[in-house]
Amino acid sequence: MTNHDDNGGDHSDGHDDTGHDEGEYGHHDHEDGHDGHSDDEHGHHDHAHNHDHDHHSHDVSELGFAVVTVSSSRSVDDDPAGDAIAELVEDAGHDVVTRELVADDHDGVQKTVHNIVGRDDVGVVVTTGGTGVTPDDVTVEAVRPLLEKELPGFGELFRRLSYDDIGTKIVGTRATAGVANGVVVCCLPGSENAVRLGVSEIILEEAGHLAGLARRE
């Protein structure tokens, strides 16, 4: 079986993360010596800060990741996408507690992910491969029944970020995510560039927060 790039094309490794220029905010001088905020405004900001703190109080700083490569043509020694996920996860201070390689088979993928989300040492599962539209792209179909809650924003954001690199070809990827048994499961395309984008710009940004909420009592 030939290997397929189910993300519809290559992704570039670099993205413009400039965001907002903080110098535009909060640095205006006021002649009357005040900082420009009324007591009511301070109270509002304090409340917002406390709310944000409470919202993130369950965040997990160190997570156990599982990496699942779905491919009938890759091998343990030839898995650039899986290697990229492991590299990014470990560089961020998390642990890769298991790596699996499974063929493009619905039952095989489903059984593998089901077994992994049953482990106590795994907080996040990242799969790579099988999210395209060829007949053997079955990762989404295999994983979705396991999800108690879907996270549609994951796929939406991934496709929005990917559009800058591959344009309308992004309609050919079905990247998705959700929560299964208190574990965050993210399904990414099979190319190295795709997983670098998804892991570095989305998963590592939100994994600790999502994993903490998913297992909150």
Written account of the structure:
This protein is 39% helix and 15% strand. With 217 residues, the protein is of the alpha/beta class. Strands 2-1-3-6-5-4 form a 6-stranded mixed beta sheet, with helices on both faces. A hairpin with a 2-residue loop joins strand 5 and strand 6. Helix 2 (80-91) crosses helix 6 (192-214). The longest helix has 23 residues, at 192-214.
Structure summarized in a few sentences:
The protein is α/β, with parallel strands linked by helices. It is globular, with a radius of gyration of 20 Å.
Please describe the structure with a list of short key phrases separated by commas or semicolons.
single chain; 217 residues; alpha/beta; 6 strands; globular; disordered N terminus
The structural class is alpha/beta
Strand order of the largest sheet: 2-1-3-6-5-4
The sequence of SSEs as H and E is HEHEHEHEHEEH
What characteristic shape results from the CA principal axes? globular
Could you tell me the mean pLDDT?
81
The value of Rg in angstroms is: 20 Å
Number of strands: 6
**Quaternary organisation of the protein chains:** single chain
Bin the strand percentage. Answer: 15-25%
Number of helices: 6
Gap between N and C termini = 45 Å
Q: Which segments are poorly predicted (pLDDT under 50) over 5 or more consecutive residues?
A: 1-38, 47-53
Largest sheet: 6 strands, mixed
State the helical fraction.
25-40%
Layout: helices, strands, pairs:
Elements: H1 39-55, E1 64-70, H2 80-91, E2 95-102, H3 106-117, E3 124-128, H4 139-143, E4 149-150, H5 152-166, E5 176-180, E6 183-188, H6 192-214
Parallel strand pairs: 1-2, 1-3, 3-6
Antiparallel strand pairs: 4-5, 5-6
Helix pairs in contact: 2-6, 5-6
